[in-house]
Amino acid sequence: MATPANLRSETPLPASKVPKDSFGYVFPAIRGLQAGRHFYVTMFPLRLIPRLFLFDEEELQPALRAQRTLNKARIPEIARYILDNPREYVFSALTASVDANILFDSFDSSGATAHIGQLTIPMSARFVINDGQHRRAAIEQALRENPELGDESIPIVLFVDLGLERCQQMFTDLNRYAIRPSRSLTILYDQRESGARIVKNLVRQSSLWTDLIEMERSNLSARSRKLFTLSALYGATKALLDSIGELTVDDAAKLARTYWGVAAEKIPEWKLVHERKVTAGDVRRDFIHSHGIFLHALGKVGNTLLRDSRDIRSWRRKLDPLSTMDWSRTNSQLWEGRAIIGGRVSKTSNCVALTANVIKTTLGIPLAPEELRIETMHERGMS
């Protein structure tokens, strides 16, 4: 934890000397060497983050900034993550540059701990975040609602500021190889969010879905043996259970598994893939019903059915016409402009809604006012 200290006159990094009577913060730190330059790893209490890491470059031209502008829409989501999970949240280190003359006092300048010591930073120092400005803004927002978080810590990787150009290059290098994990993998590893737990429970308890669902990737190759991704089933199941009522994870998974099981009975190609009688790639190539858009649309249709009845026999009767629909991608008269745009399957929200409208109409389910509006606009566009 940082404490104000009177700076001593030991030799700093080879830049210049720090005035003897300057006041500063003292942090425990580890000194390392990277690309021939010293850097420091330390920890700051969260309450210091908004004070030390100011973000005042938003109005500058991009060429004069050392980081991207804040996406304000992301901040409440990250802040809520902290506030809702005070015993579980995890934050990676902030990376920053400091433009002051800093002192590093090793605990043992001659032994193995020569790189472990105290880092003294003048209170007049200016910090620039190279990576983590959204986390910094979210921490500030979370502290307003829960000041007790201020005593907790976050790791900081500090570099000595070498000017705007170097900071800009650091931002580029830090983000050059950053790749977000696939949506499916994120769902697979999420142990907290109820929707993720429901869909994983659903898959685990069904040999059919275990065989048909790609658990890690969010895109399927032509040679994949799977029909759908976990992220597609997650989105479809979320649409299915939307506003159904308070259910435990186990009960929700059981309800969803029952519905998807009944739906699978009406799509014989799914069973053929499960039995290894046809390849998943061939089915996806030839049919609309083996793409995420169909799954999501069928989830929306199922939501209407669940609101009317929880009787599995009622679902079976209602879903019977699915087995006689022409799901061929070559049926362009029906699917072009709905599930297919320019010859390619599209999963925009509008296409999902239009595909759900076709299914509902075929099943004899009245369209809601918003669905009627979307259908009317589509028909006008086709005429």
Automatic annotation (TrEMBL):
* UniProt-listed Pfam families: DndB (PF14072)
Alphabetical list of CDD domains matching this protein: dndB
Coiled-coil residue windows? none
Database matches in NCBIfam families? DGQHR, DNA_S_dndB
Name it. Answer: DNA sulfur modification protein DndB
- The protein's organism comes out as Actinokineospora cianjurensis
